[in-house]
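Re: [help] complex structure
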Amino acid sequence: MKRMILTSLLVALSLGGCTTTHLATPSGFAAQPDAGTYDYRASDGEGVVLAVRSEKNELRGDLPFWTSAVDVKLRQAGYEALAQHDVTSADGHTGRQTRYVIDDGGREIAFWVTLFVTERQVVIVEAGGDSEFFVPKADVVEQAIASLEVG
Amino acid sequence: MKILTHTLTVIGLLALGSGCAASHKAAPSMPEEYYGAEMAQPGVEAMDDVAYGGEAMPMAESAAAAPAATPAPAGAAPISDAVPNGVLGMVPPKAGAEGERAIGQDDSEIETIGGDSVDRMIIFTGVMALMVEPASAPSAMEAAIDLAVAAGGYVARQNDTEVQLRVPSKRFRSVMRGVGRLGEVSRRSVNTTDVTEEFHDLGVRLENLQVTRKRIQKLLDEAKGLDEILRVEQELRRVSVEIDQLEGRIRFLGSQSAFSTVTVQVTERVPEVVMVEEVKEIEPPPPPPPPPARVLDTDVEWIDSVGVHDLMRLD
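Output below.
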């Protein structure tokens, strides 16, 4: 009995230390059960993908830090930043969204990356797809990102 | 018998006319001072007014002014009968006087050939290429023509850039010198051809033929019978034709040597075009783009996986 109580306490503590993110799957998208490295991944029938992952804020960086760190990596990889603005999650966290495009064999691919940073984690929301299909769904993607609960 | 005698005589004269030229003593037909004398041969007719651009010299006047030359053989007409007017270096008085004034006293006294060569017949051909100032070629050519006319010469041929002048050989050198002052001489050449020997030979042959013709004429007067007359007349015609040919050749050589050719080629200098180069300040080439900024290489693995390639890859 004593062992059961101890195990339950450890489980409860471990669950209490972790945070969960939740994003409402937009209409026309389907969440994939096996998201791989992502916490959440959904796509529509035309290949527009929306995904969320949470990473440990090992460096204790703030939102500008992680935004610029990701931006540097993406620019080095050939991404072109078109716009950047702040967004707010469903639970009131302020995030920063940078919108990129990149050429992929003559096709323009749109890619949005939105970061929410807390003291313990960095939540990365990525959305992308062929611009021809992504742009018409921009509003849907924005609403989905706004529905995020960072936790 | 008498006809036979006349016939043999005619045949003998034929042989004499065709082959005896060399046996005759060459009669000096040149003036004592070929290029130096104003008039050298008695009986020289007045020069062509047009050809010299001046007034003709009266025959009597010219004859009176001329010193006596070596007399021609007795019974032969002087060679000068066949020589054109002014062949022997004569300059018409008016043209000569004006020419000396136009060319200048110094130039007029310039001898074309030396005194030891006074009995030579030399054809002079000179070419003078002049470089003149822009737009002054016509005036330079006119000045050259004036020099030639003043020296007793004339224009033989002319176009926009070249004029060929014929001037008395005595004035050749002075005209060349005068023309040389009309511009910058870029090229000058003088060629000479000595035709003295040919001229003398022609003269001797002519005189011999003239003697022969007179004898034939005498035979013709004595001829009796139609056949004899025809034969003698035929021979007379042949000798006359040969005389005409010789006179023509002598006349040609005489004119060629009496008048020299001066070809003046005039070229205008190309106006100097001042090239104003626009000094354009050469803008230095733009500096090469700076290398990409050195940034923090964030050693966080998940950043490397952010992007559409991972995002859109369907596992």
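Confidence is low (pLDDT under 50) at residues 5-18 of chain A.
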